[in-house]
Amino acid sequence: MRVGRDRLLAGIGLAALGALGAILVVLFWNGGGSPGPEPTVSSPAGIDAYADLDRYKVHFGDTVTARVEVTVDRSRVDPDSIRVNTNFAPWKAEGTPQVRRRDGSSTTYLETTYTLSCLESFCLTEEAASVETFRAARVTFTGRGGSAAAGTHIVRATWPDLLVTARYAPPSASTSQPPTSWQANLVSLPAASYRLDPWVIVALLLGGAVLLAAAAVALVLRRRPRPAPSPAPIPAARRVPMIAPLEYALALLEDPTRVNGSGDQRRALELVADGLLVHGDGALGRIARALAWSRPVPKIEETSGLARKARAVFGRREEADAPAV
Q: pTM of the entire structure?
């Protein structure tokens, strides 16, 4: 019983360790591979700034992803001093900008991403399309080195033009298009956001599945039928000494009770008579038979006296038959 319990605990412990290992692998795995080649800086100032959009043509109501990429030479520019200032009016940045940093051996790459949208009435255009030009992004930084490079400096990153088209294109006199023509862009929806990282959810679900499986195994092992205990040995039946028929007949002859019309005593006399004839006392045997068939019921004195004499005969016979020692 104790061995089975120890095996069960060992199995649960191994399952828990496996689940913990899986969770750690999922949490700390970054997909493998290298982060890519180290970026280089071509500007004499030790900093390159570049601004770009994920698309250059959208419909009204679509979202746009704007990205400012800054690469600095750490020997000439302090990467911790980088500040990016943007103004996308009349568009608005949704949420907090996402900043990603990657350090190389001598350079640092900073990427700031904005999600832009404009749903106000002044973002509508009566024309088929209009061009939106954002103000250049201002990147401030602090230089390192001598007096000429030290201090705060500014570089600007120019945004490409954004073409905004109306979702409803008015009919043209030169074409035979239907009176209503709607335009839509179904691929410019903002990226899905998560309250909890999907990989963390996967790890938690995997760990929960392992724990549930371990609990199911433990329940099955606990509820499985146990071997029935071996039955207790049945004590040997007490042997009751058997009374020989002749001894029982003699006891009836000495019993003063007369029942069943003294039929028992008459049958006992007949049995004793047969025994006496066998053991060689014919005279006493004939007396016993005569009493068995006598018309009056034999009296207790007669039967008990006969029984006493018959015991003496039977006793002598047993002594004669006993082996000599």
A: 0.45
